[in-house]
Design brief:
The complex is a heterotrimer of chains A (257), B (96) and C (289). Chain A is α/β, with parallel strands linked by helices and 257 residues long. In chain A, helix 2 packs across helix 8 and helix 3 runs antiparallel to helix 6. Helix content of chain A is 41%, strand content 22%. In chain A, the strands form 2 sheets. In chain A, strands 3-2-1-4-5 form a 5-stranded mixed beta sheet. In chain A, strands 8-7-6-9-10 form a 5-stranded mixed beta sheet, with helices on both faces. Chain B is α+β, with helices and mostly antiparallel strands and 96 residues long. Chain B has a single domain, classed as Alpha-Beta Plaits, CATH 3.30.70. Chain B has 4 helices and 5 strands. Chain C is of the alpha/beta class. Helices cover 36% and strands 19% of the residues of chain C. In chain C, helix 2 packs across helix 8 and helix 6 crosses helix 7. The chains are: A alpha/beta (257), B alpha+beta (96), C alpha/beta (289). Strand 1 of chain B pairs parallel with strand 9 of chain C, so a sheet runs across the interface.
Chain lengths: 257, 96, 289
Amino acid sequence: MITAGIDIGSKTIKIVALKDAKEIVGRVMILAGTDVKESINKAWAELEKTAGVKPGDLAAIVATGAGKGDAVNAQRTVTEVSADAKGANFLNPEVRTVIDVGAEEGRAIRIDTAGKVVDFAINEKCAAGAGAFTEAMARALEVGVEELGPLSLKSTQEVAMNAQCAVFAESELVTLVHAQTPKPDMARAVHNAISDRIVSMVRRVGMEEKVMLIGGVANNVGFLDSLQKDLNTTVIVPEDSESVSALGAAVLAAEEA
Amino acid sequence: MLANYGYKDGSGEFFITIDTDRCNGCGDCVPVCPAGAFEVLEEDPNDPLREEPVAVIGEAQRKKLKYACAQCKPASSRPPLPCVEACKAGAIAHSW
Amino acid sequence: MAEEFWRWTESRWHDPDIDWKKGQIVSAGVDVGSVSSQAVVMVDGRLYCYSNTRTGSNSPDSAVKAMGMALEGTDLTIDDLPYTVGTGYGRVNVPFGQRAITEIACHGRGANFMYGPSIRTVLDMGGQDCKAIHVDEKGKVTNFLMNDKCAAGTGRGMEVFADLLGVSINDVGELSLKVEEEPEPVSSTCVVFAKSEASGLLRAGWPKEKVLAAYSSAMAHRVAGLLERIGVEPDFGITGGIAKNVGVVTRLEKEIGIKSLQSKYDSQIAGAMGAALFAEALIKKGAKK
């Protein structure tokens, strides 16, 4: 029996196909772009091409993510929080705290041994609390967003960032650039700032080991470094961290099928 | 004077209101806040004619109150807030 | 940015009928904001001259530039000023200032001068902040709320849109009113997300005025929410750059159900005006340079 989870995020669409609730047999990620419905079709086509799996082959499809309402083939939808919880638990049943930092939302979730949600806190609708912040700062520093992490690890001193808004922080960075502040130091300040905000959400649910980080921003080594220092612990980052939510949805689909 | 410190952004409204007519600048709120959000100033910056000291929300936390107060406001269950409890004059109120 | 759509027109003015040398008290105020700076000089409580300039990368220089521009065309120099109060973000760095007073207190006092003693609720929208202030008949603040954390509901928020649409900031207000039917407001409060939303609307074929209408509507709604937190008591007056944006003002007045008073003074000088009035009060109490 194959089930699938589709996560329609604000930036990317992810699909994970799961066989017998155990084995991942397909995984796709594409940009959501300007026409989400079209991109959803493209994502399914890509899954068929790479894994030979068609929507018709699936016993059940569950949708999650900001755009879950657009998933016409899904039988039901689940919240991102429950999908995150299940996905993290599937990958590592020892995880008790899940941190998901996506393009537009940051979440801290405490889960139990079965991957059920115990408590959660969300940072939503404010660019400063999610990946949109690092994207805007990368633009201000004129580096690619994927370069920001490695750049920050070269930092030699701490620089303060006072602005709590992505728009104001951009202006603040421009001022620092004019003052000849080294880019690695500014990059590190950016990661410390967003980590600060995420950790505050984690404190609201209480941190319990083990801690897992998922979502697009998990790929940012600079952010991971700041986060681990702030939490004073090692944080697990799975491979394909962005598709964990879709994986969780696939697991939930299997539970019901 | 009702001094509303904080902000509203996409994720909500986060204000701590200090009623300066009730505040006498005693400073009991300062040590109980784990985020160090409160300060007592000899001169009220927003009321140049006031003669008593007054409590304010300091610059360090004013623009990140949601995060500063997070540790006293867990996601579920809501214990009494240390700052509100500490203020005998009842001058402190939270909007969330 | 090839053309600077966010750049608004700087200005200055002085009253040719006042001879400051014949006045009893000359007092000065300068408001150094993160986006704009204003300087005001008053003679015996009457407005003598003012300027409205763009803040540069250096606060102290911006203060000097603003005052220099205000005094242009007069025979008064910075050294002649007996007492200057600084306000705004850069208030502690005014090289020729004697005292710093916060923008809350100064806007309250300034609005009382600009709109008269009947004013009770002041909305000030500056470059990087938004304030709602209650004042008594003397211009003393009784309740205030200031948001300077989030760009939504600030001049910067509108500048981002002016730049996105390639429309000069001086024209965005009028253009936003050129719609036949008021569109739904943009759903995001956050300027970053609203900008993405607006880009989508433009791609879907929305004309500029419709996008501006949607954004101005969202901005007015957000600001109305902030005002309602402290309550809107008449008379109501708007200060700061946003008062010049007829698109936001009209929508805001409709939402709160009260019209703003009109003033003959430039809405952006309220802070500097209040500062100059505080300077006058301090001089009367014996303060000297």
